[in-house]
Design a protein that fits this description.
Largest sheet: 8 strands, mixed
Oligomer: single chain
CATH topology: Rossmann fold
Mean pLDDT: 96
Low-confidence stretches: none
CATH architecture: 3-Layer(aba) Sandwich
CATH class: Alpha Beta
Structural class: alpha/beta
Number of strands: 14
CATH superfamily: Class I glutamine amidotransferase (GATase) domain
Length: 214
């Protein structure tokens, strides 16, 4: 069983890989965790992880620069239904459009837009950076199982994904109002926070993802 982490020049890939390796080991799953820029590896993987940090448009251009990668993701995730995890900008790329420094097309897996955070309290700084409590809305979702009532997770972002369908918001955090923290539908799951930096709660979420059979 192979878990492909897409390397498109964005994201702390080693941290994500090490966290997934530990999650797989601790759960006794023994998956092969592969960091790859090769579309054929992603196309053949059993699970796919798309991390990302930086600006939406830059990340999309980095993804498109890898020969065949966007098509491989579309086929593996949207057509064949392989379990998918997007992290931070990797989650935002699931949207139809990102509006950071202009309008940029997303993968259009979660209809909606990525827009600037605008907390009601003007004293709150942007980007939203640091630890925050997660309020789980989709309490029955397998990837969010056994995280506790209000798990503590780590954020670094100035934009959020706002799905057209509120039911696709699976968890929120409070930062001058509710902020989208996790989204999903079918075989797709995304976190605005960084599970690889979120200690026990993040490790549990990654284990849940590695066990998930949507």
């Amino acid at each position: 069983m192979t878990v492909a982490i897409v390397d498109y020049g964005s994201g702390n890939l080693r941290s994500v890989a090490k966290a997934l390796e530990r999650a797989s080991h601790d759960a006794g799953l023994g998956q092969d965790i592969a960091v790859t820029a090769a579309a054929e590896v992603v196309a053949a993987a059993d699970r796919i992880v798309l991390p990302g940090v930086g600006a939406f448009g830059d990340c999309r251009r980095g993804l498109d620069a890898l020969p065949g990668m966007t098509e491989a993701l579309q086929e593996a995730v949207a057509v064949k239904g392989r379990p998918f995890l997007g992290i931070c900008v990797g989650m935002q790329l699931m949207a139809r459009i990102g509006r950071e420094h202009g309008d940029h097309a997303g993968l259009d897996w979660i209809p909606g837009e990525v827009v600037a955070l605008r907390p009601r309290d003007p004293a709150l700084k942007i980007p939203h950076m640091g630890w925050n409590d997660l309020r789980i809305l989709a309490t029955g979702h397998p990837v969010l199982a056994e995280l506790g009532a209000h798990p503590h997770v780590y954020f670094v972002h100035g934009y959020e994904l706002r799905p057209d369908d509120p039911a696709q918001v699976l968890a929120v955090a409070d930062y001058g109002g509710p902020v989208t923290a996790a989204v999903g539908r079918a075989n797709m799951f995304g976190t605005q926070f960084h599970p690889e930096k979120s200690q026990a709660a993040g490790l549990r979420l990654l284990q849940n993802f590695l066990r998930w059979h949507p």
